[in-house]
From TrEMBL:
It is found in: Cell membrane. It comes from Sedimenticola thiotaurini. Belongs to the UPF0718 family. This is Permease. One of its GO terms (cellular component) is plasma membrane. Keywords: Cell membrane, Membrane, Transmembrane, Transmembrane helix.
């Protein structure tokens, strides 16, 4: 029991400063890159709007459920089906918060490969949808926005519009509003599943011998199984990172872990239903290929490159708390205390001094 608690605490301390940094960056992005204005650059057809949609969506701090109403709003504001698909895939698969956490829990290689793979899979799916869109002569009439903004709920949040932008347009006002969003709405979305992920990771590190799954955790069938499990379930990008750490520690190959990191956050049953409703059945097939098929191709490629180059991604991760890039303990403890304080709503309301309503949204 003591080993489990120590390992879990070590993981939490290692993660806290990077997660705090990710939340701060996410708040600034939310404040200065409003989702409602993104649609202006996603109109038209061709490759460039799809690439722009993937690149714009990748750093945004939105989970799969929060991405759905944002993407549908973009679609109805004039974005093509191809751009909407690229945005739908790239946004939940990665973000500044999950990349920051990946750096410490998965290592620099996976932290770089993860967002690049998300962008590539999003562009691939978007281009496929673009070809389908070009063949369609008549577009269906869009359904009212209200019909989808109240969609079904997933495991961490509901399909509601992200927190409204603060009324104040001053430098400090917009920045403050973004930070309030990061430490209320976004942290609430992450907290439960991140806690579950840390506990599971601590349990695996304590009980499972390193490299136990070397013989079963790699190859096409292992990736296919992970993909089939991940697509219908919901695990947001940041909360999936500790689980990915545990999988690496247990001997699952980096490529298989990459499939889990891409397929899990980008899809859930509610999202797939809405994709079919808004973009059509053929677009749904392209979406699933972008999420599942491309993920497996990227996973196989990553494992091949790692074998070719002789890399050992577990070398710097095997002993929790002993990474070469470990931060000072006081900083880690301070960061963890801040996150815990803001995760407790009464304490958070006191710290923000009335700037947050009971439902966690910004006050005007």
């Amino acid at each position: 029991m003591n080993s489990f608690l120590n390992n879990t605490l070590a993981l939490a301390l290692d993660s806290a400063p990077w997660l705090l940094f990710g939340l701060l960056a996410a708040g600034l992005i939310q404040a200065w890159l409003p989702i409602k204005l993104v649609g202006r650059s996603l109109g038209g057809h061709g490759v460039l709007p799809v690439i722009r949609a993937a690149i714009i969506g990748a750093p945004l701090p939105l989970c799969s459920c929060s991405t759905l109403p944002a993407a549908i709003s973009l679609r109805r504001a004039g974005a093509s089906k191809a751009s909407t698909t690229a945005f739908l895939i790239a946004t939940p698969e990665t973000g500044v918060d999950s990349v920051a956490l990946s750096w410490v829990l998965l290592g620099p290689v996976m932290a770089i490969i993860r967002p690049l793979s998300a962008i590539l899979s999003a562009i691939t799916a978007g281009l496929l949808v673009g070809r389908i869109e070009a063949r369609e002569s008549v577009e269906p009439n869009p359904t009212p926005v209200a019909a989808v903004s109240q969609g079904t709920e997933c495991g961490c949040c509901s399909n509601e519009e992200p927190t409204q932008e603060p009324v104040s347009q001053t430098l400090w006002g917009r920045t403050w509003g973004g930070l309030v969003y990061a430490f209320t709405d976004l942290l609430d979305d992450l907290a439960l599943w991140l806690l579950v992920g840390l506990l599971v990771a601590g349990l695996v590190i304590t009980l499972v011998p390193p490299n136990l799954l070397n013989d079963w955790g790699s190859g096409f069938f292992a990736m296919l199984l992970i993909m089939l499990i991940s697509v219908p379930m919901y695990v947001c990008a940041t909360a999936s990172t500790p689980l990915a750490h545990a999988m690496l520690f247990a001997g699952v190959s980096p490529g298989t872990v990459l499939v889990f990191l891409l397929a899990g956050p980008a899809s859930n049953l509610a999202g797939l239903i809405l994709v079919r409703k808004e973009l059509g059945t053929k677009a749904l097939y392209a979406y699933l290929f972008g999420v599942g098929g491309v993920s497996i191709l990227l996973g196989l490629t990553l494992d091949w490159l790692i074998d070719l180059l002789g890399l050992d991604l577990l070398a710097g991760l095997a002993h929790v708390g002993n990474q070469a890039y470990e931060l000072p303990l006081p900083l880690s403890m301070f960061s963890l205390l801040i996150l815990l304080a803001f995760a407790i709503r009464p304490v958070r309301r006191y710290l923000l001094r009335g700037k947050v309503k009971e439902d966690g949204s910004c006050c005007s």
